[in-house]
Write a structure and sequence with these properties.
The structure is a single chain. The chain is built from twelve helices and 15 strands. By secondary structure, it is α/β, with parallel strands linked by helices. It has two domains: 130 residues, Aspartate Aminotransferase, domain 1 (Alpha-Beta Complex); 241 residues, Type I PLP-dependent aspartate aminotransferase-like (Major domain) (Aspartate Aminotransferase, domain 2, 3-Layer(aba) Sandwich). The strands form four sheets. The chain has a seven-stranded mixed sheet, sandwiched between helices. Strands 11-12-15-14 form a four-stranded antiparallel sheet. Helix 6 links the parallel strand 5 and strand 6. It starts with 14 loop residues before the first helix and ends with a helix. The relative contact order is 0.17. It binds pyridoxal-5'-phosphate. Pyridoxal-5'-phosphate binds next to helix 4. The site of pyridoxal-5'-phosphate has 13 residues, from helix 4.
């Protein structure tokens, strides 16, 4: 027996553990000081009432012989896939039902999709980045190259000239930078992928925060994407499903190479290794896409969007450079006075008792940057913003 020693090549991710450790050490040493956290990437508002009602009704279904459900379809119940199809239609994207796969969230599918690709593919990943893209490919031993996201390109790297890649990761709006590609920029990526015979793994987990019409809600709004892209999306941030778990992946019929079809491979992979998302959860998820569900989740999203605007406005008034905040729950700011990411973390904690996330934890280009999130309550966000303004105004 041999273990997969590619695991030895994973970077130890100390980021959130280190943040938690420094924060609790500070609280222990300063028990009277109230610490405000703007570091979490998890939602804080409860599920919408329409979802709760649907969940309760689905529990009742399971109690009666006539409505009880056993194993469901691997790709998700038709009632939910129809709802997701309607959601895509509302942004001008037509999908076949067979192209939609329900999952237990975007993270699982982002990792699992790699089963359908050869190990010898070269992977292009932006830096800084959501660590899952890097780690899942390191585990498989793939060759990884990075696309530098920097202040100069607004943390939106464009296709590299003269460089070939087989698998390309794009996350827009981005975690951690909050930066979002315009449709015109995504068209360049789609053209590059089609030219190179590559696939774009497009993470749309934060599409619900996009309100600017020039930005994409889905990669499939871009002409040519159906031959080169797979899209991952999630109800986690859209509808507060981080703990309930539901997402979906779109694999278009036209994504083919050498006689193999991505859609068929993915169905085969899922039917072999996955037995579907619980019926109860899928009923709750379907409620998100009803008129009432959409109205109710919009109210929650508006709280996060207002928090983001408040933080962004504070950065504007302080003259601090940042990305995100406008079509994203993340604000990615340049640490003032030339401070490093961890230096700024300590400075904020010690002088304003505000906790954020050091950008250096998301990749080498994150050094000197800092992530704040809008998922806190209105009160804590407003308090943190006041403290930031007072500390950094001079
Ligand atoms: N993709 C990105 C960019 C994320 O930030 C997250 C969660 O924070 C996920 C995917 C995972 O989402 P899910 O809860 O659907 O697994």
């Amino acid at each position: 027996m041999n273990f997969n020693l590619n695991f030895n090549n994973l970077q130890q991710n100390y980021l959130f553990a280190e943040v938690a450790m420094r924060t609790s050490a500070y609280i222990k040493a300063n028990p009277r000081k109230k610490v405000v956290k703007l570091g979490v990437g998890d939602v804080t508002l409860p599920l919408a009432p329409a979802v709760i009602e649907a969940l309760h009704a689905a529990v009742d279904d399971m109690s009666k012989k006539e409505t009880f459900q056993g194993y469901g379809p691997y790709e998700g119940y038709e009632f939910l896939r129809e709802s997701i199809r309607g959601y895509y239609r509302s942004v001008g994207v037509e999908l076949d039902l067979s192209e939609i796969f329900v999952s237990d969230g975007a993270k699982s599918d982002l990792g699992n999709i790699l089963d359908i690709f050869s190990k010898d593919n070269t992977v292009l990943i932006p830096d800084p980045v959501y660590p899952v893209y890097v780690d899942t490919n390191v585990m498989a031993g793939r060759n990884i190259i990075f696309a530098d996201a920097t202040e100069q390109n607004g943390f939106l790297p464009m296709p590299p000239e003269g460089v070939h890649a087989d698998i390309i990761y794009i996350c827009s709006p981005n975690n951690p930078t909050g930066a979002a590609y315009t449709k015109a920029q995504l068209k360049e990526w789609v053209d590059y992928a089609n030219r190179e015979g590559a696939v774009i793994l497009y993470d749309a987990a934060y599409e619900c925060f996009v309100s600017d019409g020039s930005l994409a809600r889905s990669i499939f709004q871009i002409e040519g994407a159906r031959t080169c892209a797979i899209e991952f999306c999630s109800l986690s941030k859209m509808a507060g499903f981080t703990g309930t778990r539901c997402g979906y992946t779109v694999v278009p019929a036209e994504l083919k190479k050498d006689g193999a079809e991505a859609n068929k491979l993915w169905l085969r992979r899922q039917s072999t290794k996955f037995n579907g998302v619980p019926y109860i959860v899928q009923r709750g998820a379907a409620a998100v896409f009803t008129e009432r569900g959409q109205r109710e989740i919009a109210e929650n999203l508006q709280v996060y969007k207002s928090n983001a605007q408040l933080i962004a406005a504070a950065m504007d008034s302080l003259g601090i450079w940042y990305t995100g905040g406008k079509n994203s729950p993340y604000i990615w700011l340049k640490c003032p006075r030339g401070m490093g990411s961890w230096e700024f973390f300590d400075y904020l904690l010690n002088n304003a008792q505000v906790v954020g996330t050091p950008g250096a934890g998301f990749g080498k280009n994150g050094e000197g940057f800092f992530r704040l999130t809008a998922f806190g309550s209105e009160q804590t966000t407003a308090e943190a913003v006041e403290r930031l303004k007072n500390l950094l105004k001079n």
